[in-house]
């Protein structure tokens, strides 16, 4: 580090202004994301055993120690959690966040929030809420929900969520299944790189995303399918909804000359488990089982879309949605 030259003895006031000033050689500071300084986002996987038993509770998928975040966080901008609610019990999902997304893995129940009509939810439903009072989730049957919100981003910015940027929105399981069936029945789907439904909100026509910060996709990987590698600058928090042994994701930082991921790390899927894919990593989903698998990636891609920084790429050199 170099120090700025001070031409005169500063007054008390100017000394206070300069007390925190630092200057770095560009070569030492242009990319501070490295071990020991700004820690890179790690690859991590969470076992479904986290939510298969136990009392009513929020179970954070917390990497805050590794990331240097002041509160539970799964990435610098997002927090993912499993929410387990015993039958007949309730839990308030409290977070200082502009976007709260819930996917119901198991069970059924209701949501109550001041100023919002009651929502009855069941397995396979997805719903999102904007900033507002903490919702009360009450379970009719013992339930597990996957909950992602953008609280860590607001914590970093030092702000409180106060304005709703979209209307509370429900994507029922029956709606999702109907649209997915239509997609799979389309003859052109056999030639598609991805078989997925992107969830969107009519309040957000520019980004075509589920909220103004969150991106959500209900995807399937058919039996025997191998998806070509792709990458993007958003962080992916992948929930595995349903799979058989033999489903996995290959992850790595480079491609070889054939377009495959060089020296990949293999992440084996488990139904009800989750994993994180860091930004910029190449990843490819593989289903070597005899049954179609389902996954739900949640990303901060809506924010990247707004910033024009998503930069999604596929191993064949394509850019865009693939």
Mean pLDDT: 93
| Helicity range | 10-25%
Number of helices: 6
Number-wise, the strands total: 19
Structural class: mainly beta
In terms of DSSP E residues, the strand content is 25-35%
Q: Any idea what the radius of gyration is? A: 22 Å
Low-confidence stretches: 2-6, 318-322
Indicate the overall shape.
globular
What is the H/E order? Answer: HHEEHEEEEEEHEHEEEEEEEEEHE
State the major sheet: 8 strands, antiparallel
> What is the end-to-end distance?
44 Å
Describe the structure.
Strand 5 and strand 6 (116-122) form a beta hairpin. The protein is 13% helix and 34% strand. It is mostly beta strands and 322 residues long. The protein has helices at 12-18, 26-29, 64-67, 151-157, 173-185, 301-307; strands at residues 44-46, 57-60, 79-85, 90-92, 99-113, 116-122, 126-130, 136-149, 169-171, 195-198, 215-221, 230-231, 236-242, 247-252, 265-268, 274-277, 282-287, 293-299, 313-314. Residues 2-6 and 318-322 have low confidence and may be disordered. Strands 2, 3, 4, 5, 6, 7, 8 and 9 form an eight-stranded antiparallel β-sheet that branches.
